[in-house]
Design a protein that fits this description.
Shape: globular
Structural class: mainly alpha
Number of domains: 2
Helix content: 55-70%
Largest sheet: none
């Protein structure tokens, strides 16, 4: 059995069936690609608490995997399909045979998932159609239900991934965080914005009120604001969401910063200067973020982007973390280089330069 500290508790036979199903679904040939092997192995260790030899695992066909997981919930089977999709999304290009196999496993597990279709579009080279599917399937329904009282704005943007517009009331609500006590959630977010030169929502260059919700998660989860930190944040957010559509966040970030399947997502633009899952032990950090997200999903049961953080802004940071069921990072993730929201190594080069100039001025 997996330890109580892990996200899922399954029998050893079930874990081996899950591992074998993942390999069978996404291996391009006889073996996994190295980036797949390291990432999927680490995810299994983080979620189930066991190390699996993926090179020698038995590979059940779709029907046999479905029988092995029949006692498990549909939600779990859906999350497993997402791990299969993640295993193919990190390939460039995605072999059409892999896309077909993942679809076969999804069908056998009785999972109708639009992200399977997104990956199939990638395999066909239809990147524009894939982005349309991803945008409509993952994001639109989420922000259409976002409440104006939660976001502190009455302005309804057609696309929450686009930069925000001038909204003085919203900007004032964010600027008020400056006057909170230094150890509070709101003040910590203000300090992060101020120290990096970020424009607050409601001002020129700021994020939309909806997208800016993720900046509270940067502070709560203690993740940096460079591209590695963004992958960690949105891995956690996506897996914490009780609605499987939250997987859209991780799908988009992988496409933007790892494979180039997504060139531009509005506020975020693609950047492929380095392979992030092949460097800096990012496979360990991403896996830990997924595990933390699963723990939040069990404890909170609410999409983190639906939380009214303004109502929690005056809480001490540690109290806000307990309120929202945030577990700490694993020691393994910290050793792998996962730094905090205010660490220099957690900033982009531009953010570091701004912080240095600010320190000189003040």
């Amino acid at each position: 059995m997996a330890s109580a500290a892990t996200a899922y508790e399954f029998t050893s036979d079930e874990i081996m069936a899950i591992a074998g199903g993942l390999v069978a679904a996404v291996a391009p040939g006889d073996e996994l690609e190295p980036v797949q092997h390291s990432l999927l192995g680490e995810i299994l260790a983080a979620l189930f608490g066991v190390d699996v030899d993926l090179a020698g695992v038995d590979r059940p066909d779709p029907e046999r995997l479905a029988v092995a997981l029949e006692p498990r919930t549909h939600e779990f089977r859906h999350r497993l399909v997402h791990l299969m999709v993640l295993g193919e999304l990190i390939l460039r290009p995605i072999p059409p045979a892999v896309a077909r196999r993942v679809s076969d496993y999804a069908d056998a597990l009785d999972v109708d998932d639009k992200f399977v279709r997104v990956a199939r579009r990638y395999a066909q080279g239809a990147f524009g159609l894939a982005w349309m599917d991803l945008h409509q399937s993952g994001f639109a329904e989420h922000w259409e239900s976002a409440r104006s009282d939660q976001l502190k704005t009455d302005v309804r943007l057609p696309d929450q991934l686009s930069p925000g517009i001038e909204d003085p009331a919203l900007a004032d609500a964010w600027a008020a965080f400056e006057h909170l006590d230094g150890d509070t959630l709101g003040r910590q977010v203000w300090d992060m914005y101020h120290g990096r030169g970020f424009a607050v929502p409601g001002s020129t260059g700021g994020a939309s009120a909806y997208l800016a919700q993720h900046d509270f998660v940067h502070v709560l989860a203690d993740y940096g604001t460079n591209l590695h930190g963004e992958i960690e944040v949105f891995s956690l957010i996506g897996f914490a969401d009780p609605d499987p559509k939250g997987f859209a966040w991780l799908t988009t970030l992988i496409g933007l910063f790892e494979t180039g399947y997504v060139a531009d997502a509005g506020f975020f633009s693609g950047d492929l200067k380095e392979k992030r899952l092949d460097s800096n032990d990012m496979h360990i950090r991403l896996a830990d973020a997924l595990s933390r997200g699963a723990a939040i999903r069990r404890g909170l049961g609410t999409d983190l982007l639906d939380v009214d953080y303004h109502e929690l802004a005056d809480l001490p940071l540690d109290e806000a973390r307990r309120e929202l069921s945030f577990p700490p990072k694993s020691a393994k993730a910290v050793a792998a280089g996962s730094v905090g929201a205010f660490a220099k190594d957690g900033m982009s080069m531009i953010q570091q330069a701004y912080a240095a100039s600010l320190g000189a001025d003040e």
